[in-house]
What we know:
Layout: H1 15-25, E1 34-38, E2 55-61, E3 67-72, E4 76-82, E5 89-96, E6 101-107, E7 111-118, E8 121-128, E9 148-151, E10 161-164, E11 170-174, E12 178-183, E13 189-194, E14 202-203, E15 209-213, E16 217-222, E17 227-234, E18 248-249, E19 256-259, E20 265-269, E21 273-274, E22 286-291, E23 297-301, E24 307-312, E25 317-326, E26 332-334, E27 337-342, E28 348-352, E29 359-363
Antiparallel strand pairs: 1-29, 2-3, 3-4, 4-5, 6-7, 7-8, 8-9, 10-11, 11-12, 12-13, 14-15, 15-16, 16-17, 18-19, 19-20, 20-21, 22-23, 23-24, 24-25, 25-26, 27-28, 28-29
Amino acid sequence: MNVQKKRAKFDYSSPEVRAMVDEVVHGTFMKEGTMIAFPTHFPGATVPIVPDESHITALDVTPSGLVYGGTSGKRAHVFVGMFHGVTGMVLDFGAVEGATHCAAVCCGKQNVLACVNGPGGGKIVSAKLARLPFDLIQEWGFGKTTLDVLGEPSPGEPIVHAIPCPKREHVIGITPHHLFTADMASGKIQRGAEVSGSGRLAMTTQGTVVGLDGTTHLWNYDPAGGTLKREAYRLPGGKWGKAQFRWAKDPVNGILYTADDDRRLFTFHGERGFSGPLAKAQVAPIGPMAATFDGRVFGFCGPDLAKMFCYDPHTGQISDLGVAVSVFERRRYGYVFGDAVTGRDGEIVFGEDDDFGHVWLYFPKILKA
């Protein structure tokens, strides 16, 4: 019998947590679509990342569909996942010396940059993109991938988040007090202007980067011109500042989604700014989310025992899809998730932020015409 041990501590005095536990007891798991949980190894060929080093907190996807990720725990690892063709595997590149947390992973044209943190602050490491056989039919061997340390964006400061530019030539990131850029090809890191470094970053439809500027505004950075505008956009009316600021980007039209502490969704456009509140998820806080090609947004909400939700922009409604479970090959329940990205074919890829974390692929239900 496969028993999954969960280390998170639940606050049962919270009405929201009690309601979630009650629903789980009564069997409210995935209501639509299909989830598949991949362990962090290639069965029969490699070993998985050890449980207390496998909390997946960062993901990115290459245009060809390879999924790169970073973990947190006693040590931080960088890995690649292959889920198309005759593959179905995750390959660990190894642990980063002195790092315990991965804040971001950014895929370039030739290499991948991972932003990791340790007791001495944050640093950027680089690895070449995987050149593995795409059809893993035979007993293929796997070579050692080198993780090269590029440097520290701001000595002594941890890295909060980072994203690649649209052409995947540079990485734009933040520490608690500074903005920085890193060249994907040369590895050169430049520390920029002072910013309020909190929450996550996002790329607008205009190709600029936005991030939290205190608790009332967003700053706006233009990578092309190297200009930063403080308090460029005012946050809409709502409750902001307590939960981690997250984004989801529509992969077709580029519109951004975010949510406040009161679990209300908003859209953001670089020219039009924020919309009013769209809909409200079941519980707070809103966790990682991503949008598929038809515009629907899928994500998780709630502390520790997360529930999946779906926001459909065509109807303006949020639906409750239940607690994550994968029943293929080996049963796995998903409680906490650290990041989400849109996969090559429109599937949503979630990183499980838990011991023995898995890479979860969610295939949404296809709506009737």
